[in-house]
Design brief:
This is Phage integrase SAM-like domain-containing protein. By secondary structure, the protein is mostly helical. The protein is built from nine helices and three strands, in the order E-E-E-H-H-H-H-H-H-H-H-H. A hairpin with a 2-residue loop joins strand 2 and strand 3. The chain is elongated.
């Protein structure tokens, strides 16, 4: 009787799919559920890690039993593949983008980063056609990504930041489906150029202060205090005589 080694592959993250793996007819096989052994076991539908681990143990036992008895797969017409997909699971572009965003939002990232990811996710889905959203994400070409990123070319920094955000989602999906997704990485890059903030002219400053006065009185008071402090420093520096900054040899020694 041939000996089979069935191994569980899992993690402490409930959002990452777990499976059992083994070699069958010289090829590595992964089973995410009990479909191929006529079993209803579906570990990745579990709500907690503890429940999933229990179901994985059950799947491991039943798969090993089927292998040793020669009843794997249950339906000979259904050949197992390296990446099996549960019947209930949607692997469309639409689903995978939503899944990747949810995973990142549930991780330890800043509020600002969450906002950027939500924005690029929403804009990219609005850009894609219904056919593209319902099709395989590996079919999205580099030229299509380039077309989408054109809207962010107002500056190099803005473009590269949005390109990076979209790349984060694609990279996460690539690891999940274990297929290379190079469309974002192969898009053109832009050089980041930092721009200095220009000083507001006196008339423009008045407009801003008047706007704050009408729309946010508390912020208007804070702005007046800050503006007054900076204004006082500027006037004092201009009015100060050059001699005030000169030290005599005797005073320097004191």
């Amino acid at each position: 009787m041939q000996l089979h080694e069935v191994r569980i592959v899992t993690s402490d993250d409930i959002t990452v799919r777990s499976y059992v793996t083994f070699y069958w007819n010289g090829k590595r096989v992964r089973e995410y559920n009990g479909n191929n052994i006529n079993s209803s076991v579906k570990p990745n539908l579990a709500k907690t890690v503890k429940e999933r681990n229990k179901l994985l143990k059950q799947l491991e036992f039943e798969v090993l039993k089927a292998l040793e008895s020669g009843h794997y797969p249950h339906d000979n017409k259904h050949t197992p593949v390296d990446i099996s997909v549960e019947d209930h699971l949607d692997i469309s572009t639409d689903y995978l983008l939503d899944w990747a965003l949810e995973v990142k939002l549930n991780s330890d990232v800043s509020h600002y980063y969450r906002k950027n990811l939500k924005g690029i996710h929403r804009h990219f889905k609005a850009f894609l056609t219904k056919e593209e959203l319902s099709s395989d994400i590996t079919l999205i070409k580099r030229t299509r990504i380039e077309e989408f990123l054109q809207r962010y070319k107002s500056s190099g920094m803005y473009y590269m930041d949005r390109r990076r955000d979209l790349g984060v989602l694609f990279s996460l999906i690539s690891r999940e489906i274990e297929k290379p997704l190079q469309a974002v990485r192969e898009t053109s890059t832009m050089k980041k150029k930092a721009k200095l903030h220009k000083i507001y002219e006196h008339e423009k400053m008045k407009l801003i202060l008047n706007y704050l006065k009408d729309n946010n009185p508390n912020l208007h008071i804070c702005a007046l205090l800050c503006y007054g402090c900076f204004l006082r420093l500027g006037i004092s520096a201009k009015m100060a005589a050059r001699s005030a900054f000169k030290l005599s040899p005797h005073s320097a020694l004191k």
